Structures are given as C-alpha cells and as structure tokens.
From TrEMBL:
<dbReference type="GO" id="GO:0016477">
    <property type="term" value="P:cell migration"/>
</dbReference>
<dbReference type="GO" id="GO:0007264">
    <property type="term" value="P:small GTPase-mediated signal transduction"/>
</dbReference>
<dbReference type="InterPro" id="IPR032376">
    <property type="entry name" value="DOCK_N"/>
</dbReference>
<feature type="domain" description="Dedicator of cytokinesis N-terminal">
    <location>
        <begin position="2"/>
        <end position="205"/>
    </location>
</feature>
<dbReference type="InterPro" id="IPR042455">
    <property type="entry name" value="DOCK_N_sub1"/>
</dbReference>
<dbReference type="GO" id="GO:0007520">
    <property type="term" value="P:myoblast fusion"/>
</dbReference>
<dbReference type="GO" id="GO:0005886">
    <property type="term" value="C:plasma membrane"/>
</dbReference>
<dbReference type="InterPro" id="IPR026791">
    <property type="entry name" value="DOCK"/>
</dbReference>
<dbReference type="GO" id="GO:0005737">
    <property type="term" value="C:cytoplasm"/>
</dbReference>
<protein>
    <submittedName>
        <fullName>DOCK1 protein</fullName>
    </submittedName>
</protein>
<keyword id="KW-0175">Coiled coil</keyword>
<dbReference type="Pfam" id="PF16172">
    <property type="entry name" value="DOCK_N"/>
</dbReference>
<dbReference type="GO" id="GO:0005085">
    <property type="term" value="F:guanyl-nucleotide exchange factor activity"/>
</dbReference>
<dbReference type="GO" id="GO:0031267">
    <property type="term" value="F:small GTPase binding"/>
</dbReference>
<feature type="coiled-coil region">
    <location>
        <begin position="72"/>
        <end position="99"/>
    </location>
</feature>
Length: 221
C-alpha cells in the first residue's frame, strides 16, 4: 500500500509541474487535469477515503449550487469509473501472475552457478567442503553435494584447480522456484585424527571424518 501511494504521489508531483509550467496546449492541459483527478479519486478509493464528486472538467461540484439529483448522478459516474479502474488493475495483476507461471512452466530447467574463492576456517587437518541446496520448510536437501577436498595448508588438495573451483546446480525446475525459501548450505568435515591433540603414537588415528562446521544463507528463489 505504501509503495502504491508513493508512486501515485510521484506521478501527481510530476503532472503538477507540467500544469504549472504553462507550456501545455489547452487540449493537453484539459486531458492532464482529468488524469490528475482520476488518479486522486483512485488513491482515495484504495485508502477508503471519501469520494469527491466532480464535473466533466474535473472541478469539485459545489453542493450549494448543484441539485441533489445532479450530485447523485455525478457520484454514480465517479464510483463506476473508480471501480472500473480497480478491476483493470486487478486484471493486469492476474495476467502478470499467469504469464509468470506460464513462463516458469515452459522453461524446462534452471541452474545455479557457484564459484568457490576460499575457505577461511582454521582446521589444522585436511577437510572436505560440501555445498548443497536445502529447503528449510520441508527439512530436506534438494540437490546433490558439490565436494571440494581442502588440505591442512589452506589450499585445495587438487592444486591444479586453484582459482577454478566452480560448480553448476542444474535441473532446478519451476517447482523449485515456487518454494518459499531455499538455503545454500556449506558443510565442513574434518578428515584426520580423532582428537587434534592426539600426539601419542599408540593412540594415533587417521582418516576419520568428523563434522567440524556448517554455514548457510537463506533467501527466496
């Protein structure tokens, strides 16, 4: 509602400047005044304010000089015009929604491109970085994991892929775009000893996968 009223006020300010400029021909000036009054009456209607009764030129009718029947007929005409405008706005919105749904339905699939720059996380051992898409409302993952193996030195284990860690989540259909929320989740799994301080060779273990951290960002599709 606030955005609608703001846009109408901006339009009225612009039209007022054109009227006060005195450069418009009489026919354009008359049409612009009608547009201004129509915009004001429409704004009053959506704000549940009183309807101002006007004549054909957009001037407010004086009840002291206008008969009751004339006022009633003018009120009927103004109400009808405002209702037609409301129905037109509603129809346009429905058409936009229908076109958007049809566009989504006609598109076979969508994709999400991900470019991993760096992993800023002090682990001390090798790790696995897994990225995936998650639906928080249904509490389930909706994609496979993109896996990057990270070394204890803070670089990818496959050094040839440095600065080239890219993935594309494909086959995201219109059903996925209609989800209320989709989260991008990054999980970090530590691969190594049971305990980081396990220096005793008799208890030394290796290759164990332990959850280390998780991060996520949530938003609408």
């Amino acid at each position: 509602m606030f955005r609608s009223v703001r846009h109408m006020i901006y339009d009225l300010i612009e039209w007022r400047s054109q009227i006060l400029s005195g450069t418009l021909p009489q026919d354009e000036l008359k049409e612009l005044k009608k547009k201004v009054t129509a915009k004001i009456d429409y704004g009053n209607r959506i704000l549940d304010l009183d309807l101002v009764v006007r004549d054909e030129d957009g001037n407010i009718l004086d009840p002291e000089q206008t008969s009751t029947i004339s006022l009633f007929r003018a009120h009927e005409i103004a109400s009808k015009q405002v209702e037609e405008r409301l129905q037109e706005e509603k129809s346009q919105k429905q058409n936009i929604d229908i076109n958007r749904q049809a566009k989504f339905a006609a598109t076979p699939s969508f994709a999400l491109f991900v470019n991993l720059k760096n992993v800023v996380c002090k682990i001390g051992e090798d790790a696995e970085v897994l990225m995936s898409l998650y639906d928080p409302l249904e509490s389930k993952f909706i994609s496979e994991n993109y896996l990057v193996r990270w070394s204890s030195c803070g670089l990818p284990k496959d050094i040839d892929r440095l600065h080239n860690l890219r993935a594309v989540f494909t086959d995201l259909g219109s059903k996925d775009l209609k989800r209320e929320k989709i989260s991008f989740v990054c999980q970090i799994v530590r691969v190594g000893r049971m305990e980081l301080r396990d220096n005793n060779t008799r208890k030394l273990t290796s290759g164990l996968r332990r959850p280390f951290g998780v991060a996520g960002t949530s938003g609408c599709p």
